TrEMBL record:
Gene3D superfamilies, sorted: Hotdog Thioesterase
Protein name, UniProt field: Acyl dehydratase
Single GO MF annotation: lyase activity
Superkingdom field: Archaea
CDD domains (alphabetical): FkbR2
Residues that span the membrane, as ranges: none
Disordered: annotated segments: 167-192
Taxonomy of the source species: Archaea, Methanobacteriati, Methanobacteriota, Stenosarchaea group, Halobacteria
SUPFAM superfamilies given in the database record: Thioesterase/thiol ester dehydrase-isomerase
Pfam families: MC_hydratase
Organism: Natronorubrum aibiense
Length: 354
């Protein structure tokens, strides 16, 4: 009788059987397709606190009831970064489990916030664009508009547009124009002479720093001291806790043969960690939204995520008189000073007068 567990026999069996595949290839997506994602998630206090704790998002309003009340919340709410990561995590099985790199995201908004723990999330996505990659024949580029809804009321809690590289079933010929165009780019740096750091983290501090920068060849730009070295918890555990099944984060065997050679940090962990560093140096009131987010290179176990902030504008038009609106560009970078993430963020920042 054949012993299927004999190593030689088993190796032959593995060679002959088909693999029941997971996920979709580029060819499976057509513009206009709407995908209802089957996985759902209850946004629990444990999930929320685990995400915030590990990414250094320690704003007391998300941890303590008295601090939450002082900020106009009924109780400590679900953090917008966890809500965003959970909304995206649920979509991975259908959209990007095949192994595409998360390139970027824009128009991240929270129409239904604040959201409280116990809310069940139901997520759907629409294919908004499919494109050939001119530099990588084995991939296409797909963008989806995703909406995370309260499963009970249907209210949209988080929405965004995300873009990934997605493996093709059949590679196509490319003209290489992307790489050629990149080489032609004039990349001479054009940095200002003076870099100004706000005196504090209140709205008035950002206004004052921008006024100072306006009078000379200067920018309001500074780095944050904290760093967070990536470990098994941030790389594998946090994405799995959002039901993100991308092999990039938990299958060392497959990833050893990929460009990174190793499992990599979920893009939402990288950006949330950098944002946590930035928020620790400001008095956040509410998160408004995120745009033009890009992931420039991989972050892996052992890499350390730091943050750099540029203040772009400050307007006295927030939803509450106790705050003003500030727009930032945040850049996450690693121990070799390489940018790994960048994006703009609009947030309401508390006024000192309160
Ligand atoms: C992917 C790598 C290797 C390509 O690096 P490269 O130097 O070869 O390429 P590039 O020139 O920067 O870009 C390649 C192509 O992508 C396009 N592109 C680039 N950015 C955008 C964007 N925002 N929107 C639209 N298109 C974009 C770009 O225009 C270009 O098009 P082309 O082939 O036609 O010339 C490199 O950029 C890299 O390593 N990036 C980091 C990726 C990463 O680590 N992402 C986060 C972790 S993966 C993840 O979280 C997974 C997730 C969430 O679980 C899940 O989706 O399932």
């Amino acid at each position: 009788m054949t012993d299927w567990t004999d190593p030689d026999t088993f190796a032959q069996a593995l060679e002959h059987v088909e693999t029941k595949e997971k996920g979709n290839c580029f060819e499976d997506f057509e513009e206009g397709d709407v995908i209802e994602h089957d996985p759902g998630l209850t946004l629990t206090q444990f999930g929320n606190e685990q995400w915030m704790g590990q990414t250094l998002n320690h704003d007391p309003a998300y941890w303590r009831s008295d601090a939450a009340e002082a900020r106009g919340f009924e109780e400590p709410p679900v953090h917008p970064d966890y809500l965003t990561a959970a909304t995206l995590g649920i979509t991975v099985e259908d959209l990007s489990e095949k192994g595409g790199y998360f390139l970027g995201r824009t128009d991240v908004r929270f129409p239904g916030t604040p959201v409280y723990t116990g809310t069940e999330l139901h997520v759907e996505s629409e294919v908004v664009n499919t494109a050939t990659s001119s530099s990588r024949p084995e991939y296409g580029i797909v963008s989806w508009r995703t909406r995370g809804k309260d499963a009970e009321t249907g209210e949209v809690l988080c929405s965004y547009e995300r873009t990934n590289m997605i493996p093709r079933r059949d590679p196509v010929a490319t003209d290489g124009s992307g790489a050629a165009a990149a080489e032609e780019e004039d990349d001479k740096p054009d940095l200002p002479e003076v870099f100004i750091t706000p005196d504090g983290g209140y709205f008035e501090d950002f206004v004052a720093a921008l006024e100072e920068a306006d009078s000379e060849n200067a920018a309001v730009a500074y780095r944050h001291e904290r760093g967070r070295t990536q470990d098994d918890v941030t790389v594998a555990q946090l994405p799995l806790s959002t039901l993100n099944t991308a092999k990039q984060h938990h299958n060392v065997d497959v990833m050893s043969d990929s460009p990174s050679g190793d499992i990599v940090t979920y893009g939402d962990v990288t950006r949330s960690t950098a944002l946590g560093h930035a928020r620790s140096d400001e008095q956040t009131w509410r998160e408004v939204g995120f745009d033009d987010e890009s992931f420039h290179t991989f972050v892996a176990v052992g890499d350390t995520v730091y943050a750099f902030t540029r203040v772009l504008s400050a307007e006295d038009d927030a939803s509450s008189e106790q705050a003003g609106t500030v727009t930032f560009e945040h850049i996450a970078f690693n121990q070799d000073d390489e940018p790994v993430y960048s994006g703009t963020r609009t947030a309401e920042i508390q006024k000192r007068s309160n």
